[in-house]
Amino acid sequence: MEFYIPAKIYHEDGAVLKHGKELASLGRKAFIVTGKSSAVKTGALDDVIKALEDSDTGYILYDKIEENPSVETVMEAADTGRDQGADFVIGIGGGSPMDAAKAIALMVQNRDTSGEILYQDIKIKALPVAEIPTTCGTGSEVTPYSILTRNDKKTKQSIRHKVYPAIACIDAKYLKHAPVSVIRNTAIDALGHLLESYFNKKATDYTRMLCQHGLMAWAKNRTVLSCGTEFTDENYNQLLFASTLAGMAISHTGTSIPHGLSYYMTYNKNIPHGKAVGMFLPGYLALIEKNLVPGYSDVIAGMGFNNLEEFKAFIGHCLGEYCITDEDAGKMVQEMLGNPQKLSSVPFETGEEELQDIIKYAR
Ligand code: NAP
Ligand code: FE
Predict the structure, then answer these.
(1) Whose CA is nearest to atom 30 of ligand 1?
(2) pLDDT tens-place string over residues 112-161
(3) Closest residue (by CA) to atom 8 of ligand 1?
(4) Contact 295, 255 (CB under 8 A)
(5) Residue 276 vs residues 106, 147, 247, 263, 361: alpha-carbon distances, Å
(6) What does the CA dihedral 336, 261, 303, 10 come to, rounded to 10 degrees?
(7) pTM (whole model) above 0.85
(8) Under a CB-based contact definition with an 8 Å cutoff, are residues 182 and 37 in contact?
(9) Which fold has domain 180-362?
(10) Extents of the domains making up the chain
(11) CA atoms of 13 and 35, how far apart (whole Å)
(12) 69 C-alpha to center of ligand 1: Å?
């Protein structure tokens, strides 16, 4: 068994300013990567700039990362970072800017190469990366993954390279500015990571321990997630704890069918990542139960539910409306059948029939 999480994690109030010197010591000129407005609204960008200025470290800001960032955006950002001489990258935001930061760190380091290297099986290095999450879902602050939109393939796909962040600064106060829909969707993404990792062929005692603890932290917020009101600092901290633990777990196991199916719905129906994953979780668990996979009852109880129907009702309530047409179902099945890596993560035989069952459960 092997276990490796290189990120130094600071999870506390004022994490960025308390550890600003260490953050700034990653290089001489930071390339700060953010979405359009959340880094400013949350105060996270101000904290990072203050930390860098206090240490006389230069910076350039790139604030044009879209949701589900594309290879094209990464390449445009990397050109700017390269031209301005950035030697480390700081991602601030949800999974979109944090994932983009890792791919940009590769493309700035490997100057004069095309974006194709992101998906090639070659050995390349990246600039050092620090991550500051403002959502409670992806765990990208600790994972080595960067999932980008590939317009050439009309879907989303993880790049081939592993870029482990060096530092993760986690501060619950940044979540206070997020709308309930963002908290719910991202908390359900984290739940997807916990479930897909727990029931994964690559799971080990180490990763299952992370998932069990993550589910316990997540379950404390079940009621408030359902009601959607009055999140306390404790709620935000527990949701961030759960999502970071889930990130550590999927760093070793990867995700599974619900994530694999979600990419079609996000690319083609513009559905946020966590919501697109969540719609397939009940159907996936139904197959876990049907195939008598060990741990099923413990996991349902660990989330605080009495049975799968309760779980399905909770997910339906949190996600709200969506529509999966016959055409979507057919295309999703074909996309998944062409993804042997995800199929091989499932702890039982999975083919067209099982995929159709999972999708049917979501409709
Ligand atoms: P996101 O796409 O980063 O952000 C969603 C929306 O929420 C954006 O409009 C963003 O605004 C806003 N937002 C973020 N934080 C906010 C805050 N504190 N207050 C108010 N608004 C806020 O959402 P995400 O679900 O965290 O990330 C999804 C991406 O992560 C997907 O591309 C997915 O594939 C990827 N992902 C990666 C991993 C991994 O292991 N690396 C795992 C799962 C998912 P701005 O645009 O202004 O920032
Ligand atoms: Fe995810």
Answers:
(1) 95
(2) 788 899 999 999 999 999 999 999 999 999 999 999 999 999 889 999 99
(3) 67
(4) no
(5) 28, 15, 18, 8, 14
(6) 100
(7) yes
(8) no
(9) Dehydroquinate synthase-like, alpha domain (1.20.1090)
(10) 8-174, 180-362
(11) 22
(12) 10
